[in-house]
Amino acid sequence: MTRPAQPEDEEAARLASQLVRRLRAISTDELRSRAAGAFLESLVSATAVLVCGSLAREARDSPDAASAVSAIARSLARGHLDAERVAGWLSLARSRADRLVEALFASGPATRTYDVADEPFVDRRLARLPAGVKRTLSRGRDPDLLIRLAREQDARVIGELLANPRCTEREALVVAGKRPTHASVLETVLASRHGSSRRIRRAIAHNPYASVALAVRAMQGLSTVELGDIAADERLSGEVRRHAASLHQGRKATALERDLAAAPAPSDAEVHRLIEKLLPAAGDEEDGLVFVGPDGREHR
Predict the structure, then answer these.
(1) Residues 6+ away with beta carbon under 8 Å from 6
(2) Are 186 and 204 in contact (CB under 8 A)?
């Protein structure tokens, strides 16, 4: 049963809208994260938790609310918020059983930590270069070199690479999905301009080298289907999976997600009928093309 709206909920929604408007007028991510942190710290703890909850619940349907949640997450990641105050907010969220806010303030170590012995491949040419040289190369134009640099484990090199206008989501995905890796490298890619991409966020959330806080921040804005996949990923820690399950339960599905969930998977017979329709009619066959029908026979 849905709890009836309370006066404090209406005040939290008003303040959340005020924060969204304030952030909309700020162009850079760094200033937005600082502004979000300062705004929350100006509020009474209970109100700050309610504002975060209001934004988190609207994030799936409102790009502005999702952007505000991302600014708060970056503020947490960059240490702009007082640790004791954050701990108090987390305690309040738990007492209210607010899964979305609890997930936003999550903490805990990664399932795995970096070990150079686990590296399946070492780029010996790059390994011989000083870090300063690699940072300079990260600002270059060569796409083949940029993809090689994306496997580096120096967060400063990765920061320069991701700031390069010629760096695309391809390189960012290599950084986010690499295993083994350092948590600081994953922090860098989530904090970069590519961190708003759902593909990047999904890759980080599925990476066992991400800390609990980082993985949960990466989950913000993911669909209920994606959250369900993370909750079922046995390579991740129980804490990350628990937060994914909590977010999945606490977040309402969009209309598209509800339609996809309700749509039954096609049966084998339906798939076979579809293949039959795609087979060329007699006399329409094209030389060099071979179609295999559901009966296993080749149709040329």
Answers:
(1) none
(2) yes
